[in-house]
């Protein structure tokens, strides 16, 4: 039997809305690559950026993080067809399987999107000065960071009120972006620091970019633990929702 989440992933890959999003992202990043390419032969020397990886990686990560939360929370218009509440209400699957399946479905899509953007990242990395292969750092870290945004998004999808769901999604996204500036001591353990380090940044505004092996181990295991905790909380909320819905149906 085919796992249900693979069907959802298939529908997502075939969706015209998703294809438009993918094309838009590719065209946007390609345009930036051409405009800021550090080579005078393209006659855009005035606008060139020596460390093109930093710009490309950072913008791309912000887009991927946003999409991860947006898709998982069900706030993207195309996701209205795949609402997790419909699965909880009608599917005979266990709730944990539904939550885990939703996570795998969104993560698989983000993985495919990162693969699609790989040629742009390779070019940006190649054009950067000083040259250092950083593409594999970025690819691994952006996928690791996306775990948090996907897990939070699934948690927000358990909020049945659309306004509260949308608000939680945005607040969560903005909090992760600005938290390093609000509490600098947490910066080495937050997604933004990971991406900046992958782009060879040393400092951004008032923050020092710090990334060491000890930090990586902490980030890796804490992200996995936090992601698991968020999915577990989502399961509990959906269990409660299903139970209340069943009680309501009996009393009707």
What does this protein look like?
- With 252 residues, the chain is mainly α.
- It has one domain.
- It contains 10 helices and 2 strands.
- The chain has a two-stranded antiparallel sheet.
- A hairpin with a 2-residue loop joins β1 (203-204) and β2 (207-208).
- α3 (52-72) packs antiparallel against α5 (95-116).
- It is globular and about 60 Å long.
- The two termini are 35 Å apart.
- The relative contact order is 0.13.
Q: For the largest beta sheet, what order do the strands appear in spatially?
A: 1-2
Can you write the helix and strand succession as a string? HHHHHHHHHEEH
Distance between the termini: 35 Å
Number of DSSP-assigned strands: 2
What percentage of the residues does DSSP assign to strands (E)?
A: under 5%
Structural class: mainly alpha
Furnish the topology, listing elements before pairings.
Elements lengths: L3 H11 L1 H20 L16 H21 L11 H7 L4 H22 L1 H10 L7 H23 L4 H21 L8 H8 L4 E2 L2 E2 L4 H39 L1
Antiparallel strand pairs: 1-2
